[in-house]
Predict the 3D structure of the following.
Amino acid sequence: MTGKISHARIFSLLAAAAFVPVAALAQSAAQPWMDASLSPDARADLVQAQMTEDEELMLVDGYFAVYPTGRLLKPAPEEVRKDLPGSAGYVRGVPRLGIPALRESDASLGVANGRHMRPGDTATALPSTLLTAATFNAELAYADGAMIGKEAHEKGFNVLLAGGIDLARDPRNGRVFEYVGEDPLLAGVIAGEAIRGTQDQHIISTIKHYAVNDQETGRHALSANIADAAARESDLLAFEIAIEHGDPGAVMCAYNRVNGVYSCENDYLLNKVLKGDWSYKGFVLSDWGAVHSTVDSAVNGLDQESANEFDKQDFFGDALKQALADGKVPQARLHDMAHRILRSMFKSGLFEHPVEHTAINEKGDAAVAQRDAEEGIVLLKNKRNLLPLSARTHRIALIGGHADLGVLSGGGSSQVVPIGNKPEHEFLLGGSVLDVPGYGPQMPADRMILDPPAPLTTVRAAARGARVVYDDGSDLAKAVKLARASDVAVVFVEQWMREGADVPDLSLHGGQDALIEAVAAANPHTIVVLETGGPVLMPWLDKVGAVLEAWYPGGRGAEALARILVGAVNPSGRLPITFPQSESQLPRPVIPGIDIHEPPIQWLGTQIPFDVNYTEGTNAGYKWFAVQKLMPLFPFGYGLSYTSFRYGGLRATGGATLTVSFNVRNTGKREGKATAQVYAAPPTADGHGVARLVGWSKVDLKPGEMRHVTLSADPRLLATFDTTAHVWQVAAGDYAVTLGGSSADASATANVHIDASTIKP
Ligand code: BGC
């Protein structure tokens, strides 16, 4: 014993005292970017200082994460193939520096596994995103995002291709179920909160598809034409709000052109608006097959090419290396691309929280899906309080819509293979009673999937004591006979939507309207349950007793429906999208390009370019109906309850900002959730402009209970965007404020003076 303590010993004692493992300290000395106390930018700088050009290039060039791919014949490099997770995308990491690979999964409605890319892997199926928007409940959106993020992490993914937004400029859009409705505030808040929930689970989430990606027909070929100011006040505003709420690590640029320029090489959208005005610090990745150039894409703001096999060439592979060597793309630009990617990886904690391969918490996650479904199903009609079913209902007929198997889900890249999935839940080409031309699955690999359990099972369990009988509805005479012999008849109808094609019209197909008419004629106590992607026409509406819009209600949808039918749950969903009376009320009665682009589904390949002119501009959805003075079938924000509410005591204060306070009272006999909505219309020379949703509050009220609510409006919702001065302008004058239970309900009104102001974008 010399009594001397070596340096190494001091080091380890100090480390122990600070509870830092020696190995970690040694590592952070060698790899200082592993120090999580540093900012994501500082960490990215530190690791980039060690990276070669080839390593930075690896980060910007993505692969399709399924092999062999069948139609995409170019095999990925061996190192990529060994590690493929079986999903949508994969970007190589740099093991020598501890940079993990990006393992990407689609995730709008749960961890997707469409076309069984990971054979046998199932996940919790959430309701459609449009249903989540119908909850008007940001907390549920956050919980959904967190649930998907957690499952994704447990299944080995660290990037989710989630966060879909479009303003439903065409309700026939085959992906409308993946989006969050027609209002920029509602869409922005719901999408942003879901993204925030996902990223809190150490996952990068995208927001997509940027921008003005409002129809599937000819999606690779169309140019979405819209005035700059109108875009800022509508589609772009929804993205802006969502990015503020969720701060997604990545933005996915869209297939379509915007004002003539492809979204993924659009300097205005990517450099000027997103990275400039909004100071966005994350990275832009392309949609699958949305890149058309090397130099233009790189210079105009694309940071990462996804699944390069989908593009005509690997634009961000050797071609980008060459463009750098030729000086056509500045070296600093590659550095910026890699920096943005690494920054998002550090920010979401991808280095500290490597992906796992563990079992998911099926029970807990199912509860999230059920809460969502229970709050997003919308009661559209309830004549003489037919619902909830009374205890005296002894004979219940369930008719049609595969109610003996499950509830419908939407098709495409977001498709989840639900827990409990069996072969009989899947309908392939030609395998469905709904398989009429242009409607059912069109491609051999296209699957229509029903989420179990079956409503037949859940209604039987919920309506104890009643005899519940199912008929598939294919033989009208049989269905009518059953309806006649029953106390109530519940007719389940389906509208299947999927990515890659729009529905040609808003009608229910496969004779379903006739089925409802026939059943309603036989039994006035007919309840229609709509399992639809978005709005449908209801020529039979006057003849039925009740209508529930169940959307695609997900893996716990059948439970939620049963609980609503028997009254264990009081419905509280509100429409996030206007239901028109007919397609002639839409800004474009016929889907642009449908004559040249449908069928078949156009995934890749060349198409004839065409224009979609969004001349309604800012006024998407309910605003279009207001401007045109059209009466919809059901307005935006609408939905009934088993109780009733009164909205009153409205006080609006103006000046620099608009603040409103009001009371909501439950005037009925049951507990229920009201969604109080506040709209404001700006002054114009001859009165007021179009009212816009400026806030809402969802409140749970006991019978007789009253709640006082105060809301402040985001000034951008009162403003117009001035493209010359490049600012939001709030005009001085009297604004008309309305309070009610939907966009068409003016239970209380007020006029309030707002001062002029400008807001920097
Ligand atoms: C879709 C994206 C999706 C991607 C990867 C594309 O076809 O438009 O939403 O994330 O495929 O599956």
